[in-house]
Amino acid sequence: EIVVLRLGHRPERDKRMTTHVGLTARALGANGMILASDDQKIEENINEISPRWGGSFFIKNNANAMEEINNWKKEGGKVCHLSMYGINLPDIVSELKTEKKLMLIVGAEKVPGEIYEVSDWNVAVGNQPHSEVAALAITLDRIAETDPLLKTFGNAELTVIPMGKGKKIVHDNELIEKNKQKK
Ligand code: SAM
What is the ipTM of this complex? Predict the structure, then answer.
């Protein structure tokens, strides 16, 4: 089980970035994203993804970061904060890979010092500054047991048929009808 904790989201500035954190987390195999700020728009956007594209990714809006971290640890989970200042991922990846219950924390602006303290690992995806979306994607890819790009998502209204040129999407009309009635 992998959850992503998104810190420091500022609704006016980080809309796209936080949505991309959620989409990337889902696409590369995480089970859900916890948002440590209140942004119902992001919650709605992400909640529309799973019925449409399959799987069961969850989002929790307006969470208290320290409470989430402490509860996760009480349940036996481990916490990995992604930061350019941390141990470089290649040097720790084999240890991370053995964890069955892992929280990955990504920031936006400056991350509070207590996060560095409370985390089991502070891990850098290379010790150069870049992006929370890139850091998350590379980490999820490197710690995965099987190739996350080959994962299929069950219960999808829409499925892409891969092709070299053009675009093809298959619609599951029965499921689309069923989901409409649920609304
Ligand atoms: N300046 C902020 C600080 O010092 O805490 C970080 C800003 S950075 C744009 C936003 C987030 O991207 C960070 O909190 C971290 O999660 C992630 N990030 C950026 N570069 C990273 C790297 N090289 N390795 C791991 N995470 C990184």
Answer: 0.96
